[in-house]
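Subject: Predicted fold for RNA polymerase sigma-54 factor, 484 residues

User T.R. writes:
Posting the sequence so we have a shared reference for the thread.
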Amino acid sequence: MLKQSLQQRLLQKLSPQQIQVIKMLELPTLQLEERIKKELEENPVLEEGGGEEEYQDDNQNEEIAEKDNDKEEFSLEDYMNDEDIPSYKLSAQNYSKDDKHEEIPFSGGTTFHEVLISQLGLRILPPQKMALTEYLIGNIDEDGYLRRDIDNIVDDLAFSTGIETSFEELVELLRVIQDFDPAGVGARDLQECLLLQIERRGKHNPDVKLAKQILKKHFEEFTRKHYDKIQKRLNVNDEDFKCAIDEILKLNPKPGGAFNNPMEKASPTIIPDFMLEEQDGDLFLSLNSRNVPELHVSRSYSEMLHDYSKNKKNQSREQKDAAMFVKQKLDSAKWFIDAIKQRQNTLLLTMNAIIDFQREYFYEGDEKKLKPMILKDIAEITGLDISTISRVSNSKYIQTHFGIFSLKYFFSEGMQTDSGEEVSTREIKKILQECVDGEDKRKPLTDDKLAAILKEKSYQIARRTVAKYREQLNIPVARLRKEL
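User M.O. replies:
I've generated the structure tokens; pasting them so everyone works from the same file.
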């Protein structure tokens, strides 16, 4: 049985202004510049400049300074009786879903596959073989490999295009592609890729001959760096073996990567959000706002709305709609300016708290001086929520006198030494890195040995924890760090 009843509940909802502030906090400096440019384009009430004009409403002072003679004047009539502008564009959501948003295509240059097709054009092949070879090229990935099984390609051609071919014919045509540049293109696995490249080197060079023998007959041992086993089986001296390995290491495991894909965006340039300077033993923090303009509300639009508020009793429906549009834009501009200011205050408050917490580190830049610090520590100091601290530290950078660092860099967990002193896990990782950098590459340090070294330095860490830190530092296992 359905029953109707009234319930009273207390809910916490974010206002549009609060949502705007939250989104602003997440933006790094470069994206903030773009966001401000977009707002300036969309809202005619918002202007750049050092002046700070607050628009007046009915509850504020009615005295407004006189207009400058050289200032362009506006009136409500500018937003009325325009037959070319539909009524929906006078509302806040002023874009129709029927509006076209066309993007202008641009030329991206020559792609990797186009380079291969151009080389195919220089070969004399029957039309069907030319089409089959072009189809094979289309199946080569960006690294330069044909990773699809040829039998599957035979089936695809039969079902999708009706072209009958065979495994042997496609392998023959694949050999044609493997003769293209860059060397190694069209390989089906890493071993074939390296062998295709070594074939093009000096065939009479003894080092190349030995390298080819290693790749052909001892590839699995080579990938596992079992050099002692290979050297013993081939019965070669240390110098010749090292020269052969050096020849292999010169080869490119991803031949397609030699071609830059112009369709991919370049890595973004890091622009610091904070600037930290040291002068006479003191630290000075500032926001990097060189490309972020000062904003203010247009006086002309403020006065336009003020004039309307004094005579709104005798206004027509069109004038009221136009006035409502202007007021919406004025409110939006004021909210945007307030959001920018609140963002700046929150960023400075958070960064100052981080500097105070890690002051010893920021003076010297010594990684070992970094104290254990988590988001909760800064949240307690600033009185802000942990989620706010997370948004501030995400995608933000600070420029110091010893380099540019991500804010996330300063956060790390902690552990205690034998003496009870709390140290950052970053300090332990730095010691691990130093141990690996200084090890004998013929006999790299295992995780057990690294744990023993840390234990000697009063850091009680289990082997599995050493392995975790090593992986976080992108250091391979001892066997793969072995060198001749």
